[in-house]
Amino acid sequence: MEIEFTMLSRVNCLATRDSASQAADATSLNTSINPKSSPTPDPRRRIRVWTAQPPRSRLSNHRHRPNRISSAIVTMKLVKSAIERSTGQGSCTLTPEEPEDMWHSFNLIRPSDTLRASAIRRITSESATGSTSSQRVHTTISIRVTATDFDAQSSQLHVAGKVNAENAYVSMGQHHTLDLELNRPFTLSKAGGWDSVALDTVREACDASNRAELWAVVMQEGLANICLVTQYQTIVRQRLEVPVPKKRAGAGMEGHDKAVTKFHKTLLETLLRHLDLGQEAKPPLLLASPAHYAAEFLAYIKAFATTTTNKPLAAYVPSIMVTHSSTGHVSALNTALSNPGITTGLVDAKFGRETVLMDQFQKFLRLDNGKAWYGPNEVRRAVDKGAVGRGGGVLLISNSLFRSQKVEERRKWVALVYRVRDVEGGEVRVMSSLHESGKRLESLGGVGAILTFPLFDLDEDEAEEDVADDIERIDNVAAEI
To answer: pTM for the whole thing?
Structure first.
């Protein structure tokens, strides 16, 4: 089976440029998505375990994949693209094939967009005698989007809206919620046209080279969180908790050692159920813990691979990294990824690069050297002064800003991204609000910038503008009196 990719042109319908320059820009980026076809991959004791496994949807007729995450590279399928180069008007048909694709779909679908997908409606009919009967029918429904709801743990995406194209089963204006599913195509049309950020999201979703992954176990004595870190989000696949008694002299020490061995055994068995060691390209594994717990677990893995002659596991051992974290909870994963030894090995991965940039950004903030600013107004002033461009300028922006309910708000951020990247020549990092680095940026307002040269008192400019506005307002009132 082959997947055909249709040429997708990059469009910035918000930039005030002439049609000739727009066409040239679209043509130069026309080959961003590979048009060639690509093959589709084949599909007791008091121990508390939490498993994040997607439930079977009521609309689905196929079985979900087992709770093993394959490292085979599968990307969103671009079925059809009919987007005008000059205006950005048109639609795009996509088929999500992996849970990660639901995250891309969540970032693509925004309020006021038009979404068309298959659905099931319960239809109630009344006979001539007055009796009623209901039945479930399959149909295709088109809605104007009003809200989206995404569950990151189960990768379920629900899109609510009003019907904007009636058929035999639905009328115009009726409310309906579409449940997007894996391997079921949907067609999306953007309100106001496809902007450059939306097209970049499609391009990244369909690009297999962007699917870097990292398995991580954040642990402490008796507690472990098995996480899958992708370039867009951090997913807790399983949480394991085993009671371990404290060390005591004599017989108490033996009980402690037995409990630790049982904890390591249970954790390794659970981890192997998630890892697919049969794949050629296996993502690395990061063990993070306070003190020596991660190192002890690595020693247990090596001993287990040797004594059981588990060759796949023994071959995987060199891909396991050990680092320090403050606790065994998921929130400490950010500390582990900030370790210079870890980020060096992951620098080519998108999340590794974002972690490095966020560390540099917060370092400049602590130094107060004028080379890092956050906040919408401060960042815009820095861009206006040419400080976020070639030579090291970086715009850090959360993708949650592009999901604003206000169209004008979204256009404002799209225009800022376009100016920094395409006019000023700076680097733009659209960071996932579900990734640890993105959460750090969210706490600072969702937007920040690393400058090529220091600027000071950008926040005081806002105060001066407010004072000027107040004076002008007072003058106008005095003139009316």
So the answer is: 0.53
